[in-house]
């Protein structure tokens, strides 16, 4: 029975996956800065600060595979991103390598490529176009993953997560929604599939309006069950409550692109 470590266990995605993973991986070790408030009796938890190498090494001990959801999950000040997503992500890969961990599934994000226009259908082989410091940290994490796969033979899967949740929250999320059970499928492919070396998947369900070519995941057996269109009315009703955002509404990364934007808005008109 493989021992799987999940970092970020107290965060949004971690909280949901804590319920879905144990039937598949009964030997699940949870980690985060602080234990989840509702930690169950049967759950195993070890605290670690990702920026502290010794603590990260301690959680990697005796582990077969890692699902790395830990770190900063939105745009933030540079120092916070630096500590958790740059230093923390490097520490995680390096500690895992030292401790002989065979596989890592890394939670990347659509924000690593958020500055592609929505009309542009992209694969997983495009040049990163991060829309934020957070997006830069995710592109960095993918690069670190590639290094540990190519140089050290670790089997690494990066999932560029769209928007994880029970339903798509607005118009943009109809294209990028990810149902929790579909994320579990992607994690399982990363942790179990014999053909993984280094892969990037899009973390998206079966969304008619998708901007992403996710054929690598499909080729490796991904069969998403979530259909964003089933929630279309809800998403449009929520969208109607939002103010127009000329930058965010044009690019895939949405509000992350519009935040702090003082670039050339004319480019958007030219590209349209
Ligand atoms: C992300 O990467 C964030 O973690 C999440 O909070 C959402 O903002 C999501 O992207 C999104 O793009 O909707």
TrEMBL record:
<dbReference type="GO" id="GO:0016491">
    <property type="term" value="F:oxidoreductase activity"/>
</dbReference>
<dbReference type="InterPro" id="IPR001509">
    <property type="entry name" value="Epimerase_deHydtase"/>
</dbReference>
<keyword id="KW-0560">Oxidoreductase</keyword>
<dbReference type="InterPro" id="IPR036291">
    <property type="entry name" value="NAD(P)-bd_dom_sf"/>
</dbReference>
<dbReference type="Pfam" id="PF01370">
    <property type="entry name" value="Epimerase"/>
</dbReference>
<comment type="similarity">
    <text>Belongs to the NAD(P)-dependent epimerase/dehydratase family.</text>
</comment>
<keyword id="KW-0520">NAD</keyword>
<feature type="domain" description="NAD-dependent epimerase/dehydratase">
    <location>
        <begin position="4"/>
        <end position="163"/>
    </location>
</feature>
<protein>
    <submittedName>
        <fullName>Uronate dehydrogenase</fullName>
    </submittedName>
</protein>
């Amino acid at each position: 029975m493989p021992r799987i470590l999940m970092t970020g266990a107290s965060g949004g995605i971690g909280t949901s996956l804590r319920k879905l993973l144990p039937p598949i991986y009964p030997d699940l070790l949870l980690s985060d800065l602080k234990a989840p408030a509702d930690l169950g009796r049967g759950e195993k938890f070890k605290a670690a600060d990702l920026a502290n190498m010794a603590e990260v090494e301690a959680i990697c001990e005796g582990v077969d595979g890692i699902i790395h959801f830990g770190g900063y999950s939105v745009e933030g000040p540079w120092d916070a991103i630096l500590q958790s997503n740059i230093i923390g992500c490097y520490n995680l890969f390096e500690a895992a390598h030292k401790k002989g961990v065979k596989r890592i599934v890394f939670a990347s994000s659509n924000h690593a490529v958020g500055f592609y226009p929505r009309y542009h259908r992209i694969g997983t082989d495009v040049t990163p176009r991060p829309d934020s410091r957070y997006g830069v940290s995710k592109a960095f994490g993918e690069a670190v993953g590639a290094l540990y796969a190519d140089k050290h033979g670790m089997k690494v899967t990066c999932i560029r997560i769209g928007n994880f949740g029970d339903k798509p929250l607005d118009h943009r999320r109809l294209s990028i929604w990810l149902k929790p059970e579909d994320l579990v499928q992607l994690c399982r492919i990363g942790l179990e599939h014999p053909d993984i070396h280094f892969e990037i998947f899009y973390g998206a369900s079966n969304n008619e309006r998708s901007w992403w070519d996710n054929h690598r995941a499909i080729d490796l057996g991904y069969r998403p069950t979530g259909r964003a269109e089933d929630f279309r009315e809800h998403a449009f009703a929520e969208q109607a409550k939002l103010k127009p955002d000329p930058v965010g509404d044009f690019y895939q990364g949405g509000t992350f692109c519009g935040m702090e934007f003082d670039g050339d808005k004319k480019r958007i008109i030219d590209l349209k």
